[in-house]
Write a structure and sequence with these properties.
Layout: H1 2-32, H2 36-67, H3 72-107, H4 115-151
Helix pairs in contact: 1-2, 1-4, 2-3, 3-4
Length: 152
């Protein structure tokens, strides 16, 4: 029983951090502040911190799912969702974010990008938003699966 509740707590922290940073804090910063170069730098820092939180939560979840006394089908489903979320985090943090940071650095301190760089940055930004959305939806699935298992 305590294992299922610990999993639920970790999942809630993970999902909450994802949703708070990606759907509340960063959009609010972009709407509120006029210096979008500064906001981009702050957002990158927030996403960096959130990625580390996500990786820590994934490790905790992998341990908790492995120790749980749930049926194999439930453990397998939870494990697949956690691994998919971890893959999203790793791809976003170690793949897309460094490439976007290089493009921001190439723009210089004024943040002015030539059109080719701007187009590439836009593409990477769109892909990263898609991955973040998928990860956020997976977090909701993970929460619902655990609540459903808790109710049984």
């Amino acid at each position: 029983m305590w294992m299922a509740r610990a999993r639920l707590l970790v999942t809630t922290a993970w999902a909450g951090s994802l949703w708070t940073v990606g759907m509340l804090v960063v959009p609010t910063l972009f709407r509120t502040l006029s210096d979008h170069v500064l906001v981009g730098t702050i957002a990158a820092s927030l996403f960096d911190a959130q990625a580390w939180v996500g990786m820590a939560c994934a490790v905790a979840m992998l341990a908790l799912v492995g120790w749980g006394g749930d049926p194999a089908r439930v453990r397998r489903t939870l494990l697949l969702i956690v691994l998919a979320m971890l893959a999203c985090t790793v791809a976003f943090h170690f793949g897309l974010q460094p490439m976007m940071a290089q493009l921001r650095a190439a723009a210089g301190p004024a943040g002015v990008m030539e059109s080719a760089l701007r187009a590439r940055f836009g593409l990477l930004h769109g892909v990263s938003m898609g991955i973040y959305l998928i990860q956020s939806l997976l977090a909701a699935c993970l929460l619902f699966k655990q609540y459903a298992a808790e109710l049984r």
